[in-house]
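Spend some time on this chain, tokens included, and walk me through the fold:

. . .
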Amino acid sequence: MTTVIRAQGPRELLAYVPYRLGYRPRDSVVLVGLRPPRGRVGLVVRVDVADLADLEHGPQVARSVVGHLAADGAQRVVLVAYTDAPLRTGYTDAPLRTGGDGVARARAAVEHCREAVEPHVGPVEAWVVSSTGWYALDCAEDDCCPPAGRPLRDLESSEVGAHMVLAGTALADSREDALRIPRAGAEARRRAARAARRAHERAARAAQAGEDPVDDRVRALALWRAAVALAAGPGRRGAEEAPPAEGPGRPGRAPREALAPEVPAAPVLGRLAAALGSVPVRDAVLVSLVPGTGDLADRTVRGADVDSGTGRAIAAIVDPAAGRAPDPSVTGPARAVLEAVVAHAPRGSAAPALALLALLAWWHGDGGRAVRRVEEALAEDPAHRLARLLASALDAGVPPGWVRADV
């Protein structure tokens, strides 16, 4: 299921942005690209106010962000400043030049963005969200935007906010909280490590005896599929899935509690961590996430079509001529299992799972999460090929194929 979000008004858009990011931004500027033909929300980019406000590097940072928005096909751009600095002019209680360094930094960040965006798409609609309210940056009408801003509860009670709550979607308090994969408890990690060690020892004995490792790889793929099926159990949403942002609201319905995906026990996660160290197994897992690949994962894990099969799957993710959008009902449970593997994996053994998580995040257009996972994967294995390829794509600002095909 792919959810289409369209900008039906500033209130709905401002309510949606934190859910898109996964956390409530602070001291940030968020640029939202709106794509033709009907204002569909495209790329959403968050940048620290401090980075954008820098007099030397800030304009270049803003131009780089605009380049990514343009590559995504943005026809309009909405700017949202998350700051407690009193940015508005025209009010005696919030004079632009008497608010201290915080005002100067935030205003410089906004202006650098406007100067970068406007030559490409024209005037930028700018909004401010503070700890007390929200308002249009350029509005000086009390009836429209009171000096303290409109109440934040307006955003929480919007249709988008209501849909997200009904879907059990939770917001983290910070970017760090949103991106962090918490470590499992010490005993669970020990159990996973013992299972991983036994799997490695068994593989080493088989190699010494000259045995064909295909059967072990086939069992590993079956173990992966069972884990994903468990995480996608009845009544659970894919981790990437969002409810529709359009359509009539459903007042009077109590929010339901989010159902966390169920994941396997620690020993199974340890065996999966060991199995993903095998390139054919990792590639089979990757192939299994791509729609329309049939039995390619089974052929890949058996050693057939390892290169050509993986190449076709990667093309479906990367190449605009063959690009396929991710299916959240598949990628959501896969992400839950991979994050559980990382949470239980011994230090230095999680690079394959982290690289796959980075790929999933990039495929969904979540650049911040993709960068974080790539950095973590390369910290564990600087030579990891998939992580290095993703790092190159992220450095170049290359969007996934389905996005470029739709521009």
Summary: Residues 76 and 122 are 8 Å apart (CA to CA).
